[in-house]
Amino acid sequence: MTMNIDNNESSLGIVISGSLSEGIRVRLTNPTTVELVKVGTFVSINGENLKFFGVITDISLGASDHNIEYGSIESSNTFVKEVMSGTTTFGEIIVHPMLTLYNTEDIDTAFEKPLPAKTIPNHFAKVSSATEQDIERVFGSESDNVFWVGHPLDMESKLCLNIKELVTRTNGVFGKSGTGKTFLTRLLLIGILQSDSASNLIFDMANEYGWRGYSENINEVKGLKQLFPSKVAVFSLDETNSKKRGLTPDYVVKFGLEEIEYGDIAILKDLLNLTDLALDAVYVLEHHYGRKNWLKMFLSLQGRDSISNIAEKLNFHEGTLISLHNRLSRIHRFNFIDKTQSHQSVEKILEYLQRGIHVVLEFGRYEHNALAYILVTNLITRRIHQKYVELTETSFTKNKKPKPIVITIEEAHRFLTPSIAPKTIFGTIAREMRKYNVTLLIVDQRPSSIDGEIMSQIGTKFACLLDNEKDVDAVLTGVHGSRKLRSVLASLDSKQQALIFGHSLPMPVVIKTREYGTPESYRSFGISNKQDQIEIDREELFGEN
Amino acid sequence: MSLNLLKTAKQIDVMATNISGRQNVHLEKIKKAINAINQFSIENFKQLKNEKSNELSFVVPTIVEHPKNRYSTTNKIYEYCVMAVDGSQIEMDRHAPTTCFLINIGTCTLKYGNAAKSIFSSTPILYAKNDELVIKNELNYSERLIEGDLLAAKRSVDEIKFLGKLLKKSSAQLPRICLLDGSLQMISLKGYYNDEIVLHEFIESGMVTELNKIKSIITESTNTVFASYISYPNSTDIINALKLTSCQSESIKCGRFGNEQSCSECIGGVLDRELFSTILSPGERSSVFYASENSLSEYYQDHRIMFFYINVNNEIARIEIPQWIGENSKLLELLHSLILDQCAKGKGYPVSLMEAHEQAVITNADRKTFITMIEKTLHHQNIPIYTSMKNHSKNLRWL
Amino acid sequence: MINKNQEEKYPKSPIGEVIETSAFNLTIQCHKLYESPAIGSLIKCGTETIVYSVISNIKTQSLDTTRTTIALAQNAFSVEDVYQENPQLQNLLSTSLNTIVVGYKQNTHINHEIPSIPPKIHDLTYCCTLEETLEFSQTFGFLRILRSSNNAHIDDVIVSFLRSTLGNSKNPSQLLLRAGQELARLLKDDTQRLTQILERVSL
Ligand SMILES: Nc1ncnc2c1ncn2[C@@H]1O[C@H](COP(=O)(O)OP(=O)(O)OP(=O)(O)O)[C@@H](O)[C@H]1O
Ligand SMILES: [Mg+2]
Fold first, then answer.
1. Which chain B residue shows the shortest CA-CA distance from C63?
2. In what helix (H) or strand (E) does residue A537 lie, and over which residues does it extend?
3. How far is the centre of ligand 1, averaged over its atoms, from the C-alpha of A178 (Å)?
4. Which residues of B touch C83 (CB under 8 A)?
5. Residues 6 or more apart from A138 whose CB is under 8 A from it?
6. Is residue A156 part of a domain?
7. What percentage of chain C reaches a pLDDT higher than 90?
């Protein structure tokens, strides 16, 4: 425990007033603790009959004499200050009782699970920092289904998440840039991987998940493939780039032009700066040429005349089609688009996923190309979802459910803005929840851009520091007790800390995210594979890889 | 209104003018007295005393030294012990529920010097037994109730008794001085000069017995003195002597105590202290005189009373001593310096006597409490209480 | 102040006796002129129930209220001279103490409360030793009684007590802190007063 309180029980104070809605005011008994107490810390309260579990949501200074507030009392005498702190002047914390752990009269028949607090402790109930046992009782202890994601603030106890529970819903990792979203997400993915409760499909836009991620501190961290080579396949859109980075991808992803449909273009509307009329044209073109051939045919039109011909035919303004043609040509130019033949990339991905292999799709040189990212992500997801709907529906008869998959998308707001969310596959998945065994893991730095309805469907939210009011609002909307969480959220460290709340947790919790990137951290995942271990050891010895 | 202050004030005015008129006459007389003492001759005085003693309407002292002599002392004593006794009494009140009286004796012992210390005491003595309350004449079975002057005499005897006891207990190492307040001559008994029983009781078996005891202690040591201190004395022994020598009138029967009008030359009315205040400088004492003989003198046996005047703090006090002190120049010198020291410490009055007085004093409140205590006690013992109606009317005031 | 000197001076002999008694305040007349413990000292009296009180005032004055004391030192070299020249002062003056009752001890148990029966007149009074005083001030409940006494100078009494007793203990800072915190609770709405006391108590 970092809190330096010589008191054996790490007692903090006593309850002096409060309410269930506003929280409980606790007078700190030890005057020196004010500066050591932190918002978001867990405490336990020994009520007359119930043991409560709660979180510190505010800290304030009080004085029994108003003259102190008016500043008319001044003493440089340290003894005076020492005496007054804790008596005349004192620290107060606001604690929100979240759960009741057990009946103090009958600890043996402790509640199976902590129950939400529906009442508050008595006056003068003793408040102390939560112990490791308390934490374990609330969040569970590390085991197969439970994954250690970090530590409650200022505590050494491990905070664990029930991954099985987690993946049944769409989840979100939020936080402004550089706060540790990717690191946290990587941990969650490992958790899913290790618990084997779902297959991951990761759209690794910035090439951070599969092979060699980047850290501000130690330059390079391991990707999933490096840690779990037999369980992870890296698919690449850009083989050259992957190879340059020392990776031979398991599969090089390519798409035939015929795989691109109206929906794939519609989602690019803003990126390609398409007018509504242009989109209508796409729709008509698809009808005109057939779903498989429309793009190929349209893009193969050479010269102005042929375009105006077709425009005339389809009753479109010639200019509309010309500019549409120009813009769609950008897709045409992507290397991973094969103009001549079709590919089985999506099938390949599905195959891997069904086998329980986790797929990381690297974007290679297209890492900052939004067009490529959105196009590919949408394309793949749409088709996987489609397959899953079929699989799930047939599974009822075959009595064999397809393996659940979790699709991780960074920059998720690009797919989930209110204007397009209702139309895209991502909106659909988020809303369907796990009906078809596909859920999303949304990673985003601008949650305010995401459709509110989608936000409200998110099961568990992992919020790193957010300083934009709108983003904070977006994350907390519809959450019980959001007002208190707001101050907690705003006071998070700028890195490696997160407020977790929602479906898979009995109560919101602030964690220091589990360390990732050091040899010990890799070892802590319990990697037993010889080859992996050798690599880790070598790295440790020579500082290379 | 109980007292008409307006009318009283007018009368006081008249009195004041009379006083100032009389004062001038009085000052003239004092001047004459000074004149007389300047011309005084012991021989002449002795002769006149012998010749005219039978004609005199006043008594004169025995003078062996010129009355104008003055003595000062440079002897300053730092270490000594002073013992002083004073008394007070609660008179038998005829309206009181029972007959009794109470004498309260206060003593004060002060030790000066290295081991300076003080001991005070206050001892009340209740006289209530029948034979304590009266003087019996065995011959004719008559009884005299002790009250008034007799009670005063009784008190004097008790006082000197206590002083004797104090002296006996004290250590002879330091110089000692024993002090009484008032006169050694039991003048209150003057009216009883032919009551053999009374004089015997109070003087012979009372005062003289105690004086004997004190004398025996004092003669054993060389540095113990005993005296009685009279402040503001109204005595006229020396003036009387001067009258004898200086009055030109054929008949000496003049003056305040005379039958006829005082002659114009007469110094009658002047007090000794008025005269001596013009003679003695601060700290000085007069020569020692034998007190004028009177009808009580013979009872004093070998304790003839002597006296001198002393200027303490510009006031004249009279010191009375038995002859065995007055005739001993060494003791006289010791007495002189110790009296001066005591008076210096007491701002003009012997501090030891003052404290003894404080111990002895009975306040009015104490008197009332005393009566109530007696009443209560008697009541508790079912003894009927008789109080006269007069006392009842004093206790109750009505409109 | 209970210093070594005085401990020797008052080993086990009484300093005086009770001449006025009440549940809250006592007046003690010292047996010897000027021989009194200092303001703020803890004294005890009584036999079965030992009553503790803290000296709040020391007065030396004429025993006889109708007699005033007058200046005597005009020609003296020192005050000692005056007392040597006037031994009667030892009898005329007397030193008395006003004390505030702060607790009692019954069957070895110390209570910081007013005893149900006040001490008797003439009860002999003793000065508590440092050990006794520290035993009494293991907790500081008696400060409540002191504070609520209607003595205008009670703060000075409290300061004297704390300084002399706790200041001479083995671990003064810890005791002073606890005493200070008790005071702070008592004076929670009068920080001005509290600060003044604390500043004076601090070592
Ligand atoms: N759990 C962790 N263990 C070790 N380092 C971490 C951890 N979390 C964050 N960091 C540090 O913080 C830096 C930023 O983290 P990360 O790249 O995950 O941020 P981000 O929110 O994904 O940023 P961006 O929005 O720019 O992608 C990392 O490079 C790493 O140095
Ligand atoms: Mg990132």
1. B358
2. helix A530-542
3. 5
4. 116
5. A42, A53, A99, A101, A114, A506, A507
6. no
7. 53
C62: left (phi over 0), alpha (psi -120 to 50) or beta: beta
Q: Which residue from C44, C34, C39 is spatially nearest to C12, judged by alpha carbons?
A: C44
Both A62 and A175 in a single domain? no
Residues A413 and A441 in one domain: yes
Least reliable range by pLDDT among A354-358, B297-301, C32-36, C50-54:
B297-301
pLDDT band at B258 (very low <50, low <70, confident <90, very high): very low
Does C92 reach chain B within 8 Å, measured CB to CB? yes
Find the CB nearest C88 among B113, B114, B355.
B355
Q: What is the CA radius of gyration of chain A?
A: 28
End-to-end CA distance of chain B: 13
Q: Which structural domain, as residue segments, surrounds residue C136?
A: 16-201
Backbone phi and psi for residue A504, each to the nearest 5 degrees, phi listed first: -90, 5
Q: How far is A44 from chain C (nearest CA, A)?
A: 27
Question: How many alpha carbons lie under 13 Å from residue A293 in its C-beta half-sphere?
Answer: 6
Alpha-carbon distance B375 to nearest alpha carbon in chain C (angstroms)? 27
B117 three-state secondary structure:
strand
Give the gyration radius of chain B's Cα atoms.
24
**How many domains does chain A contain in total?**
4
What is the domain class of B82-235+280-365 according to CATH? alpha beta
Question: Which chain C residues are closer than 8 Å to A72 by Cβ?
Answer: 192
CA-to-CA separations, A277 to A420, A431, B155, B206, in angstroms, rounded:
16, 29, 143, 152
A38 in a structural domain: yes
pLDDT tens for B125-158 read 999 888 888 888 777 777 888 888 899 999 999 9
Q: How many CB atoms lie under 10 A from the CB of residue A441?
A: 27
Look at residue A303 in the predicted model and tell me its pLDDT.
80
- Sequence-ordered strand ranges (E) for chain C: 16-21, 25-30, 42-45, 50-62, 93-106, 109-111, 124-127
Contact between B366 and B373 (Cβ < 8 Å)? no
pLDDT for the residue B132: 83
Comparing CB atoms, the residue among A79, A86, A87 nearest residue C202 is A79
Subunits close to A (at least 3 CB pairs below 8 A): C
With contact defined as beta carbons under 8 Å apart, do B296 and B196 qualify?
A: no
Name the DSSP class of A526: T
**Is B176 in contact with B225 (CB distance < 8 Å)?**
yes
Among A177, A188, A205, A215, the mutation site with the greatest number of ligand 1 atoms within 8 A of its Cβ is A215
Q: How far is CA A439 from the centre of its chain?
A: 12
Model confidence pTM above 0.90: no
Task: Report the SS3 class of residue A481.
Answer: coil
CA distance B369 to C185: 52
Print the domain residue range for A26.
11-139
Chain segment A10-34, per-residue pLDDT in tens: 788 999 999 988 899 999 887 666 7
Instruction: State how many domains chain C has.
Output: 1
A48 and A173 housed in the same domain: no
- The Cα–Cα gap between A73 and A167 comes to 58
Task: List own/partner pairs for A266-269 with CB under 8 A and 24 or more apart.
Answer: A266/A420, A266/A423, A266/A424, A267/A374, A267/A375, A267/A378, A267/A415, A267/A420, A267/A423, A267/A424, A268/A371, A268/A374, A268/A375, A269/A420
In DSSP terms, A100 is beta-bridged to A52, A115
DSSP letter for B349, please. S
Cβ proximity of A53 and A114 under 8 Å: yes
ipTM above 0.90, yes or no: no
* DSSP character string of A392-427: HHHHHHHT-PPPPEEEEEESTHHHH-TTTTTTSHHH
Q: Is C181 on the interface with A (CB under 8 A)?
A: yes
Enclosing H/E stretch for B354: helix B351-360
Residues A227 and A300 in one domain: no
Q: Report the SS3 class of residue A205.
A: coil
